[in-house]
Amino acid sequence: MQRIAVLTSGGDAPGMNAAIRAVVRKAIYHGLEVLGIKRGFSGFIEADIEPLNLRSVADVVHRGGTILRTARSEKFKTFEGRKMAKENVDRFGLQGLVVIGGGGSFLGAHVFSREFGLPVVGVPGTIDNDISGTDYTIGFDTAVNTVVEAINKIRDTATSHERTFVLEVMGRDTGFIALSAGLAGGAESIIIPERPFNLEEICARLVRSYRKGSSHSIIVVAEGAASGMEIGREIKNRTGFDTKVTILGHLQRGGNPTAFDRILASMLGAKAVEWLMEGGSNIMVGYVAGQVVAVDLERVINRKKRINMALYDLAGILSI
Fold this sequence. Notes:
Layout: E1 3-8, H1 16-29, E2 33-37, H2 40-46, E3 49-52, H3 79-92, E4 97-101, H4 103-116, E5 120-124, H5 140-161, E6 164-169, H6 176-184, E7 189-191, H7 199-211, E8 217-222, H8 228-239, E9 243-247, H9 259-277, E10 283-288, E11 291-296, H10 297-302, H11 309-318
Parallel strand pairs: 1-2, 1-4, 4-5, 5-10, 6-8, 6-9, 7-8
Antiparallel strand pairs: 2-3, 10-11
């Protein structure tokens, strides 16, 4: 193997640049050429591809986002689109591909590899942490810390004004961010898609807490479970408490990656290159119980990662 490429696809996540850096420098260390595909699978189709060298990834380990930029490609979902990408594989002499992204990106990579035989290794990069076969995805730790910092700041205002605050966080299909940040931030209630919630019970808990002397509360809501605005209106209507809503939105995607995300991205990116050199294909580099592991991409795509409900129950106990 002499020439490989790397791309980032789907939503950006802090730590993607650290992973790109690891791929490029590990490959160059072993004498490989590396090309960067810009704008994900869209750039793959449109031949938006350029060589990467040591200077290309200098001073990026601490930066959020992705220097290769990212996009979602409907065209790559078609055989005609993937065939155009295959033409660029031949044109640029690519012998392997590292795809940094989430489940949708891995599905596209898996299908492309099966159809055209290009060795592909996936690196899990998404703030949602919803990829099976790995304990953590690149960007999750940073996103959780961003939310915790927001909770800390909002609690200052909640305390000062004796208010209830509803904080809506990302998590269209899963509550990993909401649960981890809610537990770490001491939220009084956490609402996630994986567990049905009873708004009447949440309001009753707020009232009980108020009667015990608490003058403020924080409720964390994953966007896929309910609308933060609607939850806030209902709480205000049912309890009469001064209730405010904050929607963090895409603020959670940005920022400098934490040390954990930088280290994780470095390990996974470097290992992806190693496995390509060893003939690996259609696998994802995962992180399980402190070890870097290889996981079949088809398994990753077809299995849903389950949230730790024991952690959810613990958050409820600690919030009494």
